[in-house]
Write a structure and sequence with these properties.
By secondary structure, the chain is α/β, with parallel strands linked by helices. It contains ten helices and eight strands.
């Protein structure tokens, strides 16, 4: 049996076409099929297509293509029909259906799926970073972060870090406690990427009492006392004053609102 020659033609890398072709061919391996796959990536002109079609006709090859350009797809279909070359369009029918349903034309830019993949992995990396460097557990993250958040306990540092991570930003957050000196790295960071989170003592008192009750503890603990909270806020003001960073009042702000403020200032 002559080997089956498959030409994978794409205006991007051609990975999608090759994966689909391999999946289809795998269903015929028991019949002694000996497939030869050749990838033709980054096809941008009709002249390039014409050469591939000519070689495919000479070698009796089967063309599988993923082209986002209507002009290139139309030319390939017309020429393969004329020369009797079998060609399968993996992208065109779906794009045409989407165009009919959505009522708008595709932008016809090759390689966008790889950009989407890159974007996804950047987001995952940022989320993992936020988890690893949450609550000051490793001060080395401060100097690697895109944004550093500082504040006393219960000022939404962790949820804010995660929200910003979904925007593909690496965020480290550091809790400030009067009894513990902040890490040295905090004074080495660029003040423009550091943000202090402050909250009114009364609001924080209410939040901390609710937190203690939720944990089954006495809401009269020192952690929730106004005097303790005021002491922590004085300490916070001293630290952010030394850093020289922006301070945002989160008293009556949702996490999304605070994040948008940070994004505006950061950009």
């Amino acid at each position: 049996m002559n080997p089956l020659r498959l030409f994978i033609v794409s205006d991007s890398v051609g990975e999608t076409g090759e994966l689909v072709a391999k999946a289809a061919v795998s269903q015929y391996l028991d019949s002694g099929l000996d497939p030869i796959l050749k990838r033709f990536p980054y096809i941008e002109t009709i002249d390039q297509l014409q050469n591939i079609i000519r070689v495919a006709a000479e070698q009796r090859a089967f063309i599988v293509f993923t082209l986002v350009s209507k002009e290139l797809r139309s030319h390939l279909v017309k020429e393969t029909d004329r020369l009797g070359v079998t060609a399968v369009d993996l992208m065109g029918p779906l794009m045409d259906s989407l165009e009919r349903v959505l009522g708008s034309a595709p932008i016809e830019e090759a390689g966008l799926v790889r950009k989407l993949d890159d974007d996804y992995f950047k987001k995952v990396e940022a989320i993992e970073f936020a988890v690893k460097y949450d609550d000051g557990r490793d001060p080395r993250g401060i100097l690697m972060a895109d944004i550093v958040l500082v504040g006393v306990s219960r000022t939404s540092k962790t949820p804010l870090s995660q929200y910003l991570a979904h925007k593909r930003l690496k965020v480290a957050n550091v809790p400030l406690v009067p009894e513990v000196d902040p890490p040295e790295e905090l004074y080495m960071v660029d003040p423009e990427k550091c943000f202090g989170l402050v909250i009114s003592p009364e609001k924080l008192n209410s939040i901390r009492k609710e937190r203690l009750l939720a944990l089954g503890l006495n809401d009269g603990a020192n952690y929730a006392k106004l005097s303790r909270i005021q002491e922590e806020i004085v300490h916070f003001n001293n630290i952010v004053g030394k850093i020289g960073c922006e301070v945002i009042d989160v008293t009556n702000r949702a996490v999304e609102e605070t994040a948008n403020l940070i994004l505006q200032k950061f950009k």
